[in-house]
Amino acid sequence: MIVNIELSGGLEILFSNKKNHQFELSGDSIPLKQLVYWMRDNHVKERPELFVENGTVRPGILVLINDTDWELEGGIDAIIEDGDTVSFISTLHGG
């Protein structure tokens, strides 16, 4: 399955400064939690604690699945399917 990932609000810095990614994963669907951990373990280049904290996406990161708030889709337990787009948008900014 192919999953499209969009990163913005500064999160792209953790992922080689790339805003858009396309990942090919096995299976027809996976839980979002599995995708998040896979991204952390395989693609975060430094400071993974800025992406994942306490078993979920760090507070201050808005997550959208096909432009819908992840909470409406089941939160961290939402099922991601082939062709889905998952957006991670940091709402926290240093100052």
Give a written overview of the molecule:
The chain has helices at 32-43, 70-73, and strands spanning 2-8, 20-24, 29-31, 52-53, 56-57, 61-65, 68-69, 79-81, 85-90. By secondary structure, the chain is of the alpha+beta class. The chain has a single domain (2-90), classed as Ubiquitin-like (UB roll), CATH 3.10.20. The strands form three sheets. The protein has a five-stranded mixed sheet with strand order 2-1-9-6-7. Strands 3-8 form a two-stranded antiparallel ribbon. A two-stranded antiparallel ribbon has the order 4-5. The longest helix is centred in the middle third of the chain and has 12 residues, at 32-43. It is globular. The termini are far apart.
Blueprint (SSEs and pairs):
Elements: E1 2-8, E2 20-24, E3 29-31, H1 32-43, E4 52-53, E5 56-57, E6 61-65, E7 68-69, H2 70-73, E8 79-81, E9 85-90
Parallel strand pairs: 1-9
Antiparallel strand pairs: 1-2, 3-8, 4-5, 6-7, 6-9
Subcellular location: Cytoplasm
InterPro entries: Beta-grasp_dom_sf, Mopterin_synth/thiamin_S_b, Urm1
Cross-link (Glycyl lysine isopeptide (Gly-Lys) (interchain with K-? in acceptor proteins)): 95
**Second-tier CATH architecture:** Roll
Number of domain modules: 1
What is the SS-derived class? alpha+beta
Q: Oligomeric status of the shown chains?
A: single chain
Which superfamily, in CATH terms, is the homologous superfamily? Beta-grasp domain
End-to-end Cα distance? 39 Å
Helix content: 10-25%
Return the average pLDDT rounded to an integer: 93
* Fraction of residues in β-strands: 35-45%
SSE pattern, N- to C-terminal: EEEHEEEEHEE
Rg (C-alpha, Å): 12 Å
Largest sheet: 5 strands, mixed
CATH class: Alpha Beta
How many β-strand stretches?
Answer: 9
Record the strand order, biggest sheet: 2-1-9-6-7
Detail the poorly predicted runs. none
